[in-house]
């Protein structure tokens, strides 16, 4: 079990994580927060790339700083922006990372070819990575995080650049993996985590705002999401007085989805994760957001 | 295992081969010094035509200057080319140990080889009063090759690390690498790879240059000319030939290149390789400006930076007294201070590099 205890992380005077505590059990956690909220910082902390200004991270009761190589041996980390050598082929790159992870060469070869077929890159394994598309590179990254069959899988925006087909494939891979390991998946793409994550973790002002199942999170807005039908010309006036989530135009009429305590006779809708996200982080930086 | 990847990474840089080609092109100019090459060639020819000359006790004894005499004494019974002997004796005459005239060459003829006498007579007759000490001349040229090659590989090491580290800084490979089990040891591996590559570069460059030089100026027989240090006290057992000392010089320069490339790796900051880049420009100036413009006055300063100056005095043949003892001594001291400073600064950087936490 991975537990984060009272961690504070600062860049100079700017506090990114503020006395944050959370425990991770086996399963997929979707770390959801807007840009600049500190997702990457949090992931780096778990990947031992940053050390907390105060507080600590424990793996099965031992501090990860003390475990050092033993801890790094059981994690797989996919950074948000990950570097690769342009002249390496996908296979070379994965073998190189296996060497870094201390996997014996014979085992590594086997594992690399397994993973390449898992991310559907077997056909292009001998192609230089500089000729890869962004999504292909991202898939190599996903494979690289899985090389050492990690107990803790840290994926920082893994689905960025993947097409829908690959997203689905990725979800299925994760679903298969999540039984016996901690998977933490950071994203601000709500639909990504909605279907994959067992639990949603939202960050707000450097603290954990919630750590709940999708249903529980959405339950916070139950009976507060409505859809109104009105002439298209009235939408701008309406959105001045209401918190509008989305607008859809059909001919001269508009369907406006909004969040409010009272529906004023409009049709109630079931709340989605996106509604919660938009409502929670309705001020751009997420800093003055209200609690629900 | 990891080191193979690091080596591969470096060997795949087209830059390495381009730089080697550039060095070779530049070294053609350094190797092709028409003045010393023609002197060396003619001497080599003379040596093969006239055979050798044995230093005798009598000649050694007749030298007045105590230092020269003691040096000559070490050669008693050994082979030395007539031209070298003539050069030595001419040197002695310049410093007043010998009065050099026809009478003297007859005196030499009585006690020594015909060839030397003939050569001395010729010199006296033409009133040349100059002979080239072929061994010393050859050594001068060869060690300038060693020096050039050493500096080139230092520049190479700097640019190469600048390039590799710069690339890694830009493409942010660190976060992937450092989150792996052995990733934190990668700096050591990289440093080792960069040392291996720069030594390999230096050896190849050296071989190319030597091949070029001996093609331009065939003089293999002079490689076995006797040679000793001005200060045999430093390494008393070292009594060798021009070729032998030349190789020793080269090995020394390899060692220093290894130190240098380690240093150049360690002094990198967060910005990748900016520092290396500027250092390499400074080094290039040190190497090429005096070489191209033949600025004699800089050379004592330059010479003390040569790798061999650290342990040995700058190359000079046993009998060459054309440099004043004090200047040579100063060079020695300066070289030791310079290289000690280099090593101290290098180890401070190295300590910081390998000690500090990764990000
Ligand atoms: N190296 C750094 N130095 C100073 N401030 C930093 C540094 N890295 C991040 N920050 C700041 O910390 C905050 C959190 O950044 P972080 O990258 O963790 O956000 P994020 O949630 O991953 O955002 P995104 O969704 O854009 O990836 C931001 O305000 C950012 O400006
Ligand atoms: Mg991020």
Q: What is this structure's SSE topology?
A:
The complex is a heterodimer of chains A (292) and B (359).
Chain A: E1 2-11, E2 14-24, E3 27-32, H1 39-46, E4 54-59, E5 62-63, H2 64-67, H3 69-72, E6 75-78, H4 90-100, H5 105-118, H6 134-146, E7 152-156, H7 164-177, E8 182-187, H8 190-196, E9 199-204, E10 207-212, H9 214-219, E11 225-231, H10 235-241, E12 243-250, E13 253-259, E14 267-269, H11 273-280
Parallel strand pairs in A: 3-8, 3-9, 6-7, 7-8
Antiparallel strand pairs in A: 1-2, 1-4, 4-5, 9-10, 11-13, 11-14, 12-13
Helix pairs in contact in A: 4-5, 4-6, 5-6
Chain B: H1 2-11, H2 14-31, H3 34-50, E1 53-54, H4 57-62, H5 66-74, E2 79-80, H6 82-94, H7 102-111, H8 114-126, H9 134-171, H10 174-178, H11 186-216, E3 226-227, E4 240-241, H12 242-266, H13 274-293, H14 299-303, H15 325-355
Antiparallel strand pairs in B: 1-2, 3-4
Bound molecules: adenosine-5'-triphosphate and magnesium ion.
Quick take:
The complex is a heterodimer of chains A (292) and B (359). Chain A is α/β, with parallel strands linked by helices.
Overview of the structural elements:
The complex is a heterodimer of chains A (292) and B (359). With 292 residues, chain A is α/β, with parallel strands linked by helices. Chain A has 2 domains: 217 residues, Rossmann fold, CATH 3.40.50; 48 residues, no CATH class. Chain A has a 6-stranded mixed sheet with strand order 6-7-8-3-9-10, sandwiched between helices. In chain A, strands 2-1-4-5 form a 4-stranded antiparallel sheet. In chain A, strands 12-13-11-14 form a 4-stranded antiparallel sheet. In chain A, strand 1 and strand 2 form a beta hairpin. The two termini of chain A are 30 Å apart. Chain B has 15 helices and 4 strands. Chain B has 359 residues and is mainly alpha-helical. Chain B has 2 domains: 255 residues, no CATH class; 82 residues, no CATH class. Helices cover 70% and strands 2% of the residues of chain B. The interface between A and B is medium-sized, with 28 and 24 residues. Bound molecules: adenosine-5'-triphosphate and magnesium ion (MG).
């Amino acid at each position: 079990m991975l537990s984060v205890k009272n961690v504070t992380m600062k860049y100079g005077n700017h506090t990114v994580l503020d006395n944050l505590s959370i425990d991770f059990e086996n399963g997929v956690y979707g770390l959801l927060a807007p840009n600049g909220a500190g997702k990457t910082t949090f992931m780096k902390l778990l990947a031992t790339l940053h050390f907390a200004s105060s507080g600590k991270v424990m793996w099965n009761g031992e501090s990860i700083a003390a475990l050092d190589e033993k801890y790094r041996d059981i994690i797989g980390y996919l950074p948000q922006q990950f570097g690769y050598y342009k002249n390496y082929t996908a296979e070379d790159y994965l073998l190189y990372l296996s060497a870094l992870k201390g996997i014996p060469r014979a085992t590594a070869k086997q594992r690399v070819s397994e993973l390449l077929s898992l991310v559907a890159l077997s056909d292009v394994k001998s192609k230089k990575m500089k000729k890869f598309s962004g999504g292909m590179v991202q898939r190599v990254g996903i494979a690289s995080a899985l090389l050492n069959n990690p107990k803790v899988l840290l994926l920082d925006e893994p689905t960025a650049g993947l097409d829908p087909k690959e997203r689905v494939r990725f979800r299925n891979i994760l679903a298969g993996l999540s039984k016996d390991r901690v998977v933490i998946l950071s994203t601000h793409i709500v639909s990504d985590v909605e279907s994959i994550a067992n639990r949603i973790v939202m960050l707000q002002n450097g603290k954990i705002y919630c750590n709940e199942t999708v249903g529980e999170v959405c339950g916070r807005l139950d009976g507060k999401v409505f859809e109104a039908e009105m002439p298209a010309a009235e939408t701008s006036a309406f959105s001045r007085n209401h918190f509008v989530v989305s607008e859809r135009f059909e001919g001269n009429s508009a369907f406006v989805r909004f969040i409010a305590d009272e529906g004023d006779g409009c049709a109630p809708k079931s709340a989605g994760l996106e509604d919660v996200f938009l409502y929670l982080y309705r001020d751009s930086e997420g800093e003055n957001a209200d609690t629900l | 295992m990891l080191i193979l990847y690091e080596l591969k990474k470096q060997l795949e840089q087209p830059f390495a081969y381009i730089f080697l080609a550039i060095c070779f092109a530049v070294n053609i100019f350094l190797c092709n010094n028409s003045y010393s090459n023609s002197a060396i060639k003619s001497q080599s020819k003379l040596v093969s035509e006239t055979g050798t000359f044995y230093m005798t006790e009598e000649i050694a004894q007749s030298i007045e200057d105590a230092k020269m005499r003691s040096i000559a004494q070490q050669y008693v019974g050994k082979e030395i080319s007539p031209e070298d002997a003539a050069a030595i004796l001419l040197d002695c005459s310049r410093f007043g140990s010998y009065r050099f005239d026809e009478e003297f060459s007859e005196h030499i003829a009585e006690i020594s080889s015909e060839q030397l006498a003939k050569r001395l007579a010729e010199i006296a007759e033409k009133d040349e009063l100059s002979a080239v000490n072929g061994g010393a001349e050859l050594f001068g040229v060869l060690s300038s090759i060693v020096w050039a090659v050493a500096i080139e590989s230092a520049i190479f090491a700097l640019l190469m690390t600048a390039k590799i580290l710069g690339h890694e800084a830009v493409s942010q490979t660190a976060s992937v690498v450092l989150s792996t089990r052995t990733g934190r040891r990668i700096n050591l591996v990289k440093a080792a790879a960069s040392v291996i590559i720069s030594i390999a570069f230096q050896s190849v460059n050296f071989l190319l240059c030597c091949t070029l030089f001996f093609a331009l100026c065939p003089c293999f027989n002079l490689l076995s000319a006797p040679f000793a240090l001005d200060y045999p006290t430093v390494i008393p057992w070292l009594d060798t030939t021009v070729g032998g000392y030349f190789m020793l010089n080269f090995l020394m320069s390899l060692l220093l290149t290894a130190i240098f490339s380690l240093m150049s790796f360690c002094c990198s900051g967060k910005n990748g390789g900016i520092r290396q880049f500027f250092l390499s420009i400074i080094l290039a100036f040190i190497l090429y400006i005096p070489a191209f413009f033949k600025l004699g006055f800089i050379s004592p300063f330059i010479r003390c930076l040569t790798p061999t100056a650290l342990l040995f005095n700058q190359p000079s043949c046993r009998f060459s007294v054309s440099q004043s003892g004090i200047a040579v001594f100063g060079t020695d001291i300066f070289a030791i201070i310079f290289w000690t400073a280099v090593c101290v600064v290098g180890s401070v950087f190295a300590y910081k590099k390998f000690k500090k936490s990764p990000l």
